[in-house]
Write a structure and sequence with these properties.
5 helices; single chain; disordered N terminus; 22-stranded antiparallel beta barrel; globular
Length: about 650
C-alpha cells in the first residue's frame, strides 16, 4: 500500500511537471529576462535571516550555480572543499558516504533540505545520493547548534536550499545532459518563474553509472522536485517544497572489499515535504509556522547468484521505513533597532517500521534566542533549549557568542555551546543478534571556538582563522559480549576530544583569476584507547584556482589533500587498527557559453570535468578503492534570464 502511494506521488509530480513545463515555455517566450540581486543573508545559524558578518558561528555558504559551473554533481564533493569537513566514501559511485565535521562522529551533523530533517532518527545520514541538480545554496554551520535544531546537531548543520521562482517577473529554465567514464549518463531539467505574488520551480533529474567494478556495480539516482511561493502582500509569505528521491545501488563486495556477489543491491526512496507560513504583524514582531515531513523506504535485496546458489548469505531481503514529522512555530520580537528575541516550540514524531523494528517515539522542545547589537560594532548571540524526549527524558542545551568589528576590515568572534544526539532506534530497541538498551543516555558535546577574519585590498583578499575545541561524552558503543544484568550490547562508555585550527583565504588576482584555499589541523583522541578517531585525518587542505572568461564561462583547477587517517581492518579477527596513507587528488573543470538565449532561441553551454586528473590510487575506507580518472562532458540549454 505504501509503495503504491509512493508510485502515485511520483506520477502526480511528473504529470504536474509536464503541465508546468508547457506553461513555462509560453511564459518564457512572452517575457523579457530580468535579474534581481538580493543582499547576502544566512538563515541556518540563527533560524532568522542575518548578515554573515553579525554571526558568531563559523559559516560557509556554497552557491548551487557555482557547483554546476564546476561540474560538481554531489553535495559530498562540495563539502570536501569546506574547512573542518572530512568526507569518506566506500569506493564506487553510490557507496556509503559519511561526513565528519571537526572530528565529530558521522552521525553528529544535522542534515536539512528546506528545513526538513533528512537524518535517520539517531543521526546518521548517507550523502551518497544527494545531488546538486536542484540546489540553490548550501549553508554549513560548524559547531554545536542543538540549541536551535535539537538532536543530531552536535558538531554542525548542513542545510540545502532548493531553487524556487527567480523573482522580478522573470522566467528561466535549464536542460542539462551529458556522459563520460564508467558509463556515466545524466539528464536534468529545471524551470522556474515568478509573476506577481506567485513563484514556482520544478526540477527533474536522473543520473546513472556502471560503477567501478566489472560486475553488479551500477548506480542510479532520480529526483523530482517542485516548490511554490505565494506572497499575498509585502508582509506575508507561504512556501511549499516537495521532493521525491529514488536511488538504487548495486555492489558486488563484502565487508572486506572482495567481489563476492553478483546481484545484491540497496534502494532508498521517498518524499520530503516542507511548508512554512510567515507573517510580519508590525515593525516590532513577526511569526512563522512550519511543517516538515520526511519518509524513506530503505531496502536490501540479495537473491540467488545462480540457480544452485546455496551459500549461507544467499537470498536475504529486508525493508525498513523511517519517518520524521516535525511541526513548529516561532515568534520574533524586535525589542529595539539592534535586538531581536526569538522563541519557538517544536513537536517531532519519529517512526521506524519494517523487517527489523516497529517502534515510535516523540520529542517536544521549546527554545529562545537573543540576537543583539550592543553598539561599538559588537553583536551577541545567546540561546537555550529544553527537549523532552519520550525515551531519555529532559535535556537542556545552550549557546552564547560575541562578534566584534573594531574596524571595517576586521572581525573577531568567540562562541561556546553544547549539543546532543539521541540514540538510534536500533541502539535502543534491537533484538536478535544484538540487543538494544532502552536506558541509553544521549551522546553529548561541549565546544568552544575563537576566530578572526580580515579583509584587505578593498575586499579583494579575505583571511579567516578559527581555533575550536570539542569534548564528546557518553559515546554509545557496541559490545559483542552482552553487558550488565539486562545483557545489552550497546552502552555509554566512551569519551573523546577533538581540537584544531581552520584557515581559509580568498583572493582576486585580477585579469579574471581568483584563488581559494583552506587548511584544517585536527587533533582527535579517543580517551578510552588513546588513538585518533577513525577516518578523520590530522591534516587536510584544498586549493582552488579559477579563471573567468568574462561572460563566456570559466575554467578551474581544484586540488585536495588529506593526510593519513585511522581505519579498522575487519578482514582479520579480532579486527585491528590500520593507517591509510595520505592522498592528493586534482580535479579540473570548464564551462563555456557558446551562445546566449535570445527570444525563443535557447542559450547553449558546454561543460567538462575531469575528476582525479592524475589518476591517483587511494582509499578513503580500507579495501574500497576510490574511482580512478573520470572524464565527464556535457551541455545545457538555457532559457530566460
Amino acid at each position: 500500500m505504501r509503495y503504491a502511494f509512493s508510485r502515485r506521488l511520483f506520477s502526480t509530480v511528473f504529470v504536474s511537471t509536464l503541465f508546468l513545463s508547457t506553461h513555462f515555455v509560453v511564459a518564457a517566450f512572452a517575457q523579457s529576462p530580468d535579474t534581481v540581486t538580493l543582499p547576502p543573508v544566512v538563515v541556518t545559524a540563527t533560524r532568522i535571516p542575518i548578515a554573515p558578518g553579525t554571526a558568531s558561528a563559523s559559516i560557509t555558504v556554497i552557491s548551487g550555480a557555482s557547483l554546476r559551473a564546476q561540474g560538481i554533481t554531489t553535495v559530498a564533493d562540495a563539502l570536501r572543499l569546506v574547512p573542518g569537513a572530512a568526507v569518506a566514501a566506500t569506493g564506487s559511485f553510490g557507496g556509503q558516504t559519511s561526513l565528519f565535521v571537526r572530528g565529530g562522529e558521522s552521525d553528529y551533523v544535522k542534515v536539512l533540505i528546506d528545513g526538513v530533517p533528512q537524518n535517520q532518527p539517531g543521526g546518521f545520514y548517507d550523502f551518497a545520493n544527494l545531488g546538486t541538480e536542484d540546489v540553490d545554496r548550501i549553508e554549513i554551520v560548524r559547531g554545536p547548534v542543538s540549541v536551535l535544531y535539537g538532536s543530531d546537531a552536535v558538531a554542525g548543520v548542513v542545510q540545502v536550499f532548493t531553487r524556487s521562482g527567480p523573482g522580478g517577473g522573470a522566467a528561466s529554465g535549464r536542460l542539462a545532459f551529458g556522459g563520460g567514464s564508467y558509463g556515466t549518463e545524466w539528464g536534468s531539467g529545471a524551470m522556474s518563474e515568478s509573476a506577481g505574488s506567485f513563484g514556482w520551480g520544478v526540477t527533474l533529474s536522473r543520473r546513472t553509472t556502471d560503477g567501478t567494478y566489472p560486475v553488479n556495480s551500477n548506480d542510479r539516482r532520480s529526483l523530482a522536485g517542485a516548490s511554490l511561493r505565494f506572497a499575498p502582500d509585502a508582509r506575508g509569505e507561504v512556501r511549499l517544497s516537495v521532493r521525491y528521491a529514488d536511488a538504487l545501488f548495486h555492489f558486488p563486495t563484502d565487508a572486506t572489499g572482495q567481489v563476492a556477489d553478483s546481484d545484491q543491491h540497496t534502494s532508498d526512496r521517498g518524499p520530503s515535504v516542507a511548508l512554512e507560513i510567515a507573517r510580519t504583524f508590525s515593525t516590532r514582531w513577526d511569526a512563522a509556522a512550519s511543517l516538515a515531513w520526511h519518509r524513506e523506504e530503505s531496502r536490501y535485496d540479495d537473491g540467488a547468484d545462480s540457480p544452485g546458489d546455496t551459500s549461507v548469505f544467499c537470498c536475504f531481503h529486508s525493508r525498513d521505513v523511517l519517518q520524521r514529522l516535525v511541526a513548529g512555530g516561532r515568534a520574533s520580537l524586535h525589542v529595539s533597532s539592534g535586538a531581536v528575541v526569538t522563541a519557538g516550540v517544536e513537536r517531532e514524531l519519529q517512526r521506524q517500521s519494517g523487517s527489523t523494528l516497529d517502534t515510535t517515539r516523540g520529542n517536544s522542545a521549546a527554545y529562545a534566542q537573543l540576537l543583539g547589537d550592543l553598539g561599538h560594532a559588537v553583536s551577541i548571540t545567546a540561546g537555550t533549549r529544553l527537549d523532552k524526549n519520550q525515551q531519555f527524558g529532559d535535556h537542556l542545551t545552550g549557546r552564547a557568542g560575541v562578534a566584534w568589528r573594531p574596524d571595517g576590515r576586521t572581525r573577531l568572534r568567540a562562541s561556546v555551546g553544547t549539543g546532543f544526539k539521541e540514540p538510534s532506534f536500533f541502539e535502543n530497541f534491537a533484538t536478535g543478534f544484538a540487543r538494544g538498551n532502552a536506558g541509553l543516555r544521549p551522546e553529548r558535546s561541549t565546544s568552544w571556538e575563537v576566530g578572526v577574519e580580515r579583509t584587505v585590498r578593498q575586499g579583494r583578499l579575505a583571511l579567516q582563522a578559527t581555533w575550536f575545541d570539542q569534548r564528546f561524552r557518553d559515546f554509545i558503543q557496541y559490545s559483542a559480549a552482552p553487558l550488565g544484568p539486562d545483557s545489552v550490547n550497546y552502552v555509554n562508555i566512551g569519551d573523546a576530544t577533538a581540537r584544531g585550527l581552520e584557515l581559509s583565504i580568498r583572493t582576486a588576482l585580477g585579469r579574471g583569476f581568483s584563488v581559494e584555499a583552506a587548511y584544517t589541523y585536527l587533533r582527535s583522541r579517543d580517551e578510552g584507547t588513546g588513538r585518533r578517531l577513525q577516518r578523520r585525518p590530522t591534516h587536510a587542505g584544498a586549493l582552488q584556482v579559477f579563471h573567468s572568461l568574462a561572460d563566456r564561462g570559466s575554467v578551474g583547477l581544484s586540488a585536495r589533500y588529506s593526510g593519513d587517517r585511522e581505519d579498522r581492518d575487519f578482514a582479520v579477527f579480532p579486527d585491528t587498527a590500520v593507517t591509510l596513507p595520505a592522498q592528493a587528488v586534482l580535479d579540473a573543470s570548464a564551462e563555456f557559453r557558446l551562445s546566449r538565449g535570445r527570444g525563443a532561441l535557447p542559450g547553449l553551454v558546454i561543460t567538462g570535468r575531469v575528476e582525479n586528473l592524475l589518476d591517483a590510487r587511494y582509499e578513503e575506507a580500507l579495501y574500497f578503492p576510490a574511482p580512478r580518472r573520470t572524464v565527464l562532458v556535457g551541455g545545457a540549454l538555457t532559457f530566460g534570464r
